[in-house]
Amino acid sequence: MDLFDMVQDNFFSLLSSKNKRIYLASILQVFKVYETGTILGIEKKIVVDDLTYFLDSNSNYLYNIEDEEDEEANPQSKRELANYILRRMEECGWIYVDVTNDYVEVLNFSDVAITICEALLNAYPAIDLADSELPEDYVDPSQYQGYIYSIYTLLNQTDNIDYALTFSLVFSNTRQLIRAIRRLDARMKEYIQSVIDNTEIKNLMERLIKYKNEVYDKSYVKLKVSDNIDRYRLNIVTRLEEFQSNETIVKAISKNYLAVTKTEEEAINKAIRNIDEVIDAFNAIEDFIVEIDNKNRNYINSTIGKIKFLLSEEDNIIGKLNSILKFVKDQNKKGKQDRAMRILDGLYNLPQIKVYNMESSLYTPRGGYQRNANQVLDDVGFDFDLNPEFLSQFRTAYNEEEVANFLDANLVDGVFQASKILRYDCTRTEFMMVVYSIILAVEKSYVVEIIDDSKVETEKFIIKDFVIKKTLV
Fold first, then answer.
1. Cα Rg of the chain, angstroms
2. How far is CA 452 from CA 79, 303, 464, in A?
3. What is the DSSP letter of 217?
4. What average pLDDT does the segment 112-128 reach?
5. Could you give the CA distance from residue 45 to residue 51 in angstroms, rounded to a whole number?
6. What is the pLDDT of residues 187-210, one digit of tens each?
7. Residue 321: its pLDDT value, please?
8. Which of 261, 274, 29 is nearest to 174 (CA)?
């Protein structure tokens, strides 16, 4: 995928502005604080407080409001400046802020921003990386399973254990695992947002197939099934609690922090806090799994709802107005705006309406409404049988069994191809069965591939052709 399809047009504007130094330092500082939060994010209020203190303590980062394009921005204090920087980060797509049911603002970094911040932290000399750097001879696992199994293996060693090195690797792997999970969360949120941003059926269909291939198969399924954290979580938490309760082990681990603390007692307290941080991370993972389950359902349901709306849009007044406006827009692109307006002139006629004054009007106000006891329905029940033939009229065609039968019936040599099913005059039900076939393919982990050089054209829209192969990924 093209990088610029994944980021906003103004994503890098912060790093190219005249205030780029203070923006870069602030982004990295916010990311460091974000990493101390839970897997689901960190309260924005905490970030504001920390960034305010950071800006107040580092006078070498100068901010010049005259260099900003936003003429209304004129922060008068370090707190106002911190809030302004966070607002600019959100506008440019570095972070997003959600509001919980308790009206608490929770801050998260976007998928691309997490990856870029990791690279910047490794290259930026002013940031203390003592807690997050990996040993030179250590190779990062590329999947959740690698991180989880590495942590599990390290904690269950039995011979010649170097507790300082062991916990250093456990802490680093946990950080990498959390970053990978956060990237998954950010990507799912971006796909949910794309349902709102896209107004074309073809775009929604392509995004749904990309979601299946890039997010669902590569990350979601692995986290839920093959890399199931629950398989190792209890053992990992138990071993860490054993470490924490053993003074000798804690003292050994504290050697990692003697270089960055003033006293041995501070090093021991830092070791205890970091062990707590890893324990809290694994205890919070279950809540995160529930959260990404909800995001998965929200994205699929939102996509289906949007496609249904767009299919029926032409049947209502709003849909007809949208069609007219799209026609004008397309004609304008072709340089034929005058022709489009001449066509529109014949579509409407606004007659002159004569206004009557109240004195000469024959309108009589309605009388007051009184409840009539005879309007209450008698409790007489139904006198007819709800036979299967009658009930079949209300059965939905979109249940899983019907969709599975539709998919199987249209498989040719194990391949389901959209262009061989959808005709120019296909019905709304036929098209929705094709959409639900993609959803079923997602749930069953079948292969779904877009055919770039082939299109399916119907009366209302054009989409790229695609195939579903009944072969497990």
1. 30
2. 50, 21, 6
3. I
4. 72
5. 10
6. 888 888 888 888 788 888 888 888
7. 66
8. 274
Residue 414 CB neighbours (<10 A): 10
Residues 108 and 135 in one domain: no
Q: To the nearest whole percent, how much of the chain has pLDDT over 70?
A: 74
Query: 268 and 294 share a domain?
Result: yes
Domain boundary among 102, 128, 154: 128
Residue 462's DSSP bridge partners are 457
**Is residue 38 over pLDDT 90?**
no
At 466, is the secondary structure helix, strand, or coil? Answer: strand
Contacts 24+ apart (CB under 8 A), 125-134: 126/25, 127/28, 127/32, 128/260, 130/257, 130/259, 130/260, 131/171, 131/175, 131/274, 132/35, 132/172, 132/175, 133/172, 134/169, 134/172
Residue that terminates a domain, selected from 113, 128, 143:
128
Q: What's the length of the chain?
A: 473
User: What's the CA gap between 422 and 283, in Å, rounded?
Assistant: 48
Number of domains in the chain: 3
DSSP assignment letter at 394: G
- To the question of pTM greater than 0.85 for the whole model, the response is no
CA distances from 375 to 353, 368, 371, 372 (A): 39, 17, 8, 6
Q: What is the mean pLDDT of the segment spanning 73-95?
A: 86
Arithmetic mean of pLDDT, 248-268:
87
Residue 236 in contact with residue 149, Cβ under 8 Å? no
pLDDT digit string, tens, across residues 328-386: 777 777 777 777 777 766 666 555 555 556 566 666 666 555 555 555 545 545 454 55
| 174 shares a domain with 59 | no
Instruction: With respect to residue 375, please indicate whether it lies within any of the assigned structural domains.
Output: no
Q: Could you list the residue range(s) of the whole structural domain that residue 87 is in?
A: 1-128
